[in-house]
Amino acid sequence: xxxxxxxxxxxxxxxxxxxxxxxxxxxxxxxxxxxxxxxxxxxxxxxxxxxxxxxxxxxxxxxxxxxxxxxxxxxxxxxxxxxxxxxxxxxxxxxxxxxxxxxxxxxxxxxxxxxxxxxxxxxxxxxxxxxxxxxxxxxxxxxxxxxxxxxxxxxxxxxxxxxxxxxxxxxxxxxxxxxxxxxxxxxxxxxxxxxxxxxxxxxxxxxxxxxxxxxxxxxxxxxxxxxxxxxxxxxxxxxxxxxxxxxxxxxxxxxxxxxxxxxxxxxxxxxxxxxxxxxxxxxxxxxxxxxxxxxxxxxxxxxxxxxxxxxxxxxxxxxxxxxxxxxxxxxxxxxxxxxxxxxxxxxxxxxxxxxxxxxxxxxxxxxxxxxxxxxxxxxxxxxxxxxxxxxxxxxxxxxxxxxxxxxxxxxxxxxxxxxxxxxxxxxxxxxxxxxxxxxxxxxxxxxxxxxxxxxxxxxxxxxxxxxxxxxxxxxxxxxxxxxxxxxxxxxxxxx
Length: 495
Prior knowledge:
Elements: E1 7-11, H1 15-19, H2 33-44, E2 49-53, H3 61-72, E3 76-81, H4 93-106, E4 112-116, H5 117-121, H6 123-129, E5 134-136, H7 141-152, E6 164-168, E7 171-173, H8 185-188, E8 219-222, E9 225-226, E10 247-248, H9 251-265, E11 269-272, H10 281-294, E12 299-304, H11 311-320, E13 322-330, H12 334-339, H13 346-358, E14 362-369, H14 376-389, E15 393-398, H15 406-414, H16 442-458, H17 460-470, H18 472-482, H19 489-494
Parallel strand pairs: 1-2, 1-3, 3-4, 4-5, 8-11, 11-12, 12-13, 13-14, 14-15
Antiparallel strand pairs: 5-6, 6-7, 9-10
Helix pairs in contact: 3-4, 9-10, 10-11, 17-18
């Protein structure tokens, strides 16, 4: 048995389970950013740390468990349940639970700690259902350090640790307080522990590299801020923070991390994970100025809201290497958007998309079908808007009740049907189950979503744009993607 590592983070996941046939060529393989940030935090506190990226390494649960125990022999195993975007934590819970069960089968006494958006949203249920000893209902790293310290002191007193749910005998004990959020991110959590990760395994989204599909590796994703000040009804990002919040790393800290990625790892394709990057003027423009001065050959993308994009910033964003902005357009219906707490007019959407494209930045449009006020006409209007905008790429989602979101609370209160297993929350899962609306069944919403995907990505004017913008290889790639069938049990049952 090797010398004990203080903490081993395990990143769970199964791309095939979540994305079906799209997992082989088309989906991204993301580094576990939060595990990497928390590892940095613990290292700065003098702890020894490891990361096992079971998702990127495509490990079966028992293989991950064996490697964890044999290679690291950790005092504490941490399952970091964070997905590729804020709402993707829940879909990883099936894999996370399987790994925890496998670890306990090999070593029942090994302490397991679970953190992430989903566990923070449902801490009691997570302890009831999963083979774990501790669940964090807060941000994570401070609670984790205090738990490790208590274990190293004999593991008898966890009662004063904020945000820590735990088992005690046959009972579940809730914390009496929430851990405070970290404020000085630069000093306490300055970047991801890249040296602990299998950097050759990470792959950019296909659309991120449509102009060079053979250059999707290497790839990285980083945070420049944590949290979001908004409260969209379908989003669960603030579950670990317990309130809308927004904290930033300094431009100096972010630039240092990008320098390291470019110079040490040869990474040029970089995603800014922030739920809301294009928001704070000084934060955005200081980072852009630093990137322009460095002249790194980076290919960046980030999230923005239609109402936070400022035309005056676009030239600097493009010069800094931001080749894509992802906009949450959601719906063509202002009434439907207002019901999801997304307030702006249709004319704003068209204007902002055109301004971004005029600046030479590509647009990824995100659309949601089946929001609470949707009906057949409003969903068709959303598809019509998507076809009119003709963004360089589009994501089509169905409204889902992710734990931690307002939609989840409403669904539980109303007794609406929810997915049977956690990985069924994946939009591309065979067993995905959208929410119904007052006018539409889940099957009707899902059928429309899948039809919209095919219509959009086979539309002649869209394919012509891809060909003009990115070349024939990109067009052929899109054709292959749109031809991959997704099995949908809900639709097969409805036939």
